[in-house]
Amino acid sequence: MLRSKRLIVASHCVINQNAVVKEEARSPGIMKAAVDWSYEKGYGIFQLPCPEFTFLGPERPPMTVEEYDTPEFHAHNRRILLPAIEQLKVYQDHGYTIVGGLGIAGSPSCDPGKGVFMRDFLELAAENGVNIDFFWQIPNTADGIFDPDNDNSVFGPVTAGQQDDLHKKSAGTKSKEGNQL
């Protein structure tokens, strides 16, 4: 059997930049460096739905965390996340390891430290016993290139309760796989 039984949970636009607000796209299609890294590590990529695309469509304007932090958007997030959480729970219950998440630094929805969707995702995961406690991120840089050896691409440990501590770095600590951060 070739299955690694290891998954990384990725923001939708890691695999599909076509869902991103036009002005914010960091790649024409996929975030190749992140996909290549996942492949090299033997991780299956579990793609989350894009909350902004499903809430406002492909021609939406750029918005802020504050503009998305509404009861309607939170309800939408929970509605689209529930099937994903249920599927992740099945994986976990069958011996698969969720090695962590891959978010988008600077995104009002998918930033691991402040994103509205990520907050809802982590809360719903915790409520359902799905363990996701470490995040990497596509950096908010001009090139947006993911490099797991660069601090800009490593967010670090995160839980639903800690998520509001914006971009707390974990310098000098080890990741779940023993890699120096």
What are the main properties of this structure?
181 residues, five-stranded mixed sheet, alpha/beta
Please describe what this structure looks like:
- The protein has 181 residues and is of the alpha/beta class.
- The chain has one domain.
- Helix content is 33%, strand content 14%.
- The protein is built from 6 helices and 5 strands.
- It has a 5-stranded mixed beta sheet with strand order 2-1-3-4-5.
- Helix 5 packs across helix 6 (116-127).
In a few lines, what is going on in this structure?
With 181 residues, the chain is an alpha/beta fold. Helices cover 33% and strands 14% of the residues. Residues 164-181 have a biased composition (Basic and acidic residues).
**Number of helices, where a helix is a run of at least 4 consecutive DSSP H or I residues:** 6
Number of domains: 1
Order of adjacent strands in the largest pleated sheet: 2-1-3-4-5
Low-confidence stretches: 163-181
Name the shape in a single word. globular
Mean pLDDT: 89
Helix-strand string: EHHEHHHEHEE
Oligomerization state:
single chain
- End-to-end CA span: 31 Å
Largest sheet: 5 strands, mixed
What is the CA-atom radius of gyration, in angstroms? Answer: 15 Å
